[in-house]
Automatic annotation (TrEMBL):
Sequence ranges assigned to domain DUF8173 in this UniProt record: 199-334
Entry superkingdom: Archaea
Keywords, sorted A to Z: Membrane, Transmembrane, Transmembrane helix
Entry protein name: Putative membrane protein related to bactofilin
InterPro entries in the cross-refs: BacA/B (IPR007607), DUF8173 (IPR058486)
Organism: Halapricum desulfuricans
Record's keyword annotation contains Transmembrane helix: yes
Keyword Transmembrane helix: yes
Pfam families, sorted: Bactofilin, DUF8173
Region Disordered, annotated ranges: 344-368
TM segment ranges: 194-216, 237-259, 265-289, 296-314, 320-338
Biased composition, class Acidic residues, residue ranges: 346-368
Length: 368
């Protein structure tokens, strides 16, 4: 079961990588559209399409690849994609024609009786129903897979071994077989000792922590001081930020251009969370060392990262310590940023402009 779950996750990962790679490599040449609903009308032709939207409907022609992220993607009977279709979506329906390959990940995939895929079809979704034509091979990862009587596959059909598979009499030129290396996703990973992951994580955190101390010594010092002198306030602000930022990003997603901004926001928040965790660990270690009359930021870096990294292996306690240091670090970062903003705003008013020196009056000198 664990192997099948790992395999299942792998196919989704591979398909998702193909989707993301397609989106970034094609964005320079393709037209980019975002919003609640993106429609290519019948009779309309566009040169490729990259999209982040709620719904994508193709009734016309996409001359090139169609890739992106959406809630629903529909290629209607009149719709044509001359290149590849690579999308991640909750629901994907192909009733028209795709001249290239189809690589999809998401909730469900339906290839209607009128749907045609000239190339290969690779899917990592929850449910799949093929009733149309696939010119190449079909690699199907999902919990429920159905080959309808009207389906036609020019190559081989490989499906997840643990899937609920139904063949209603489809025409398949190649073989139809269950593949243990396909699930709702990709390939099984070898067992790696937990201590190896811990050691690697400690090494990476040490490198990033050192980079923060070198690149931003002043900011790092202020975060350290804030955690030491205002620990309760830092933790409280950290809780508010940890809850408020994700909620704000989710709310942003429902706006017209919110999906791409939300995706970028979650990536930025993930990086911020990592930095906050490191700052929290370093600051707590620095405070502990100062209780022993030791004030050395590099020793605090090593003690904080290594110490909390090892303690993190302890069940329950490790998770609680990580949460505490994350909230302390996040709150301290927020407080320091607010202080810096206020300081920048007051600096112009706190320093009056210097008056020009008084030049001696030549006439007075002559009089003397």
């Amino acid at each position: 079961m664990k192997r099948q779950q790992a395999v299942s996750g792998g196919l989704v990962l591979l398909v998702a990588i193909a989707v993301v790679a397609g989106a970034f490599t094609g964005v320079a040449a393709a037209e980019t559209r975002t919003g609640g609903t993106v429609v290519v009308e019948e009779g309309e032709t566009i040169d490729g399409l990259s999209t982040f939207s709620g719904t994508v409907i193709v009734r016309g022609t996409v001359d090139g690849n169609l890739d992106g992220v959406a809630g629903t993607v529909v290629i209607e009977e009149s719709g044509v994609v001359t290149g590849n279709l690579a999308v991640t979506a909750g629901s994907i329906t192909v009733a028209g024609e795709v001249n290239g390959n189809v690589d999809v990940a998401g909730g469900s995939l339906t290839l209607a009786p009128t749907g045609v895929v000239d190339g290969d079809l690779n899917a990592g979704v929850g449910s799949i129903r093929l009733a149309g034509t696939v010119g190449g091979d079909a690699m199907l990862g999902g919990d429920s897979i159905t080959l309808a009587e009207t389906a036609s596959v020019g190559g081989h059909v490989r499906y997840a071994e643990n899937a609920d598979f139904t063949d209603e009499g489809a025409t398949v030129d190649g073989s139809v077989s269950a593949d243990p290396d396909i699930g709702s996703g990709g390939f099984d990973l070898p067992d790696v000792p937990g201590w190896l992951f811990t050691g690697y994580a400690i090494l990476v955190n040490l490198v990033l922590g050192a980079a923060l101390l070198v690149a931003m010594p002043g900011f790092s010092r202020r975060v350290d001081e804030t955690v030491s002198t205002e620990a309760a306030k830092s933790a409280g602000v950290g809780v508010l930020a940890a809850l408020g930022i994700p909620i704000g990003l989710v709310v942003l997603a429902v706006t017209i251009v919110g999906i791409p901004l939300t995706l970028a926001g979650f990536v930025a928040f993930a990086l911020l969370a990592w930095v906050a965790l490191l700052y929290g660990r370093i600051a707590v270690a620095a405070w502990a060392l100062r209780q022993a009359d030791i004030d050395n930021r590099w020793l605090a870096l090593v003690a904080g990262i290594v110490g909390f990294g090892v303690l993190g292996r302890i069940p329950i306690l490790g998770g609680l310590l990580s949460l505490a240091t994350f909230l302390l670090g996040l709150g301290a970062i927020a407080l320091v940023l607010v202080e810096l903003r206020r300081g920048d705003g007051d600096s112009d008013e706190s320093e009056p402009a210097a008056e020009p020196p008084i030049e001696p009056d030549d006439s007075d000198a002559g009089a003397i």
